[in-house]
Amino acid sequence: MKGGTIITKSKRHRFGTLNPKINLKPFRSISSPFIETKRSTAKTSGMEEQKKKYESGDALDYIMNLESVPSKLPQHLELLKTRVLCNNDAPIHTDTIQYSGAYAALGVDNSLRLDNFCENFKVKVNRLTDDTIEFDMIGIDPALANAFRRILIAEVPTMAIERVYIANNTSLIQDEVLAHRLGLIPISADPRLFEYPENAGDEKNEKNTIVFKLHVQCPINKEDKTLKSDELEWLPNGSALPAEDSKAKQNVDSKPKTFTSFSCSQDSLPEFSSNPPRPTYLDIKLARLGAGQEIELEAHAVKGLGKTHAKWSPVATAWYRMLPEVVLLKDVEDKLAEELKNKCPKDVFDIEDIGGGKRKATVKNPRDCTLCRECIRGGKEWEDRISLRRVKDHFIFTIESTGALPPEVLFTEAVKILEDKCERVIAELS
User: Where's the DNA-directed RNA polymerase RpoA/D/Rpb3-type domain (predicted)?
Assistant: First the structure.
């Protein structure tokens, strides 16, 4: 072919002459099987085992267990992934790396796997009182820790006074101010035993309302009287004040209509027989009455959420902090050790005798570190001696209850609420 690339033995190539002595043999096809004449029994069984793993869906586990696949990151990358480094000016590496292929170039899988989470996640209770719990949450993402905090503040229901019916108030405190103060009193009653008031419409019954009565009068011969929350009296039979619209309609023989319609007394229920509803704290000051002044009212408590109003929030505060980590990069001895110990306001460091008349600084209480960074101030030489860090997946969680529910119950309720949210999302996506 003229000027072409296809030639025969009788034609010349434009770049040279074809050598007829070259014996061109066909190459073996890449797809052709590689045949071994001898194969060991161990290798055969190994391949069969690998085949079974692939067929059973454990291919990922098999790949991750290969010797050529690294299971850990290099030390410097592992430090940046798991720690927040707190320098003198500002913390660095504060973000969490979620992308599964972030370390694919190194052969390390960064994906979140359920079996790894179940193996690494731990909860350790450090302190538990009637109102406070402190525990460590280990192996969890900051987003989940913050989700628990927000649920505790705004989405765990409690009982709080919502409606106040004032029959008489001759004190100096205004009606609306008194009602507001009553609403902020924590009520010791299990909200799980009650329904939300909107579920029953306008009906206020024994399943959604707790009624308290307050009737206090300061004697004329007394200078003044302090009104406290212990004066609130629980009315298990419901409201005793007649409703305004029923005063003109009621007959002489009929029972006046009240603000509630209880079908039974609440003290007949086994849940309230041993633990009646009451204010959690009995010494909260509500008002001061002068001689001859009087307050008479009814306060109705209902079930609600903290995101509607702060009076329904079950916690005084719920907060967390990452576990502090204090590392001495170099030995700090003698006078420098004394200086370091005196620098820290939280007594994190201690000094031990290492013999030979020398003393060395050690880290005694790393959990008490507040990251004030006083220990690394004073020049770059101190930054080279001490490293302040925070562990990204280790949280010290503290819950302070208002008294409506025990703190350990509050956390379990928050877990249930988060679980319900996840189930709703899965149901909507499926």
Answer: 132-428
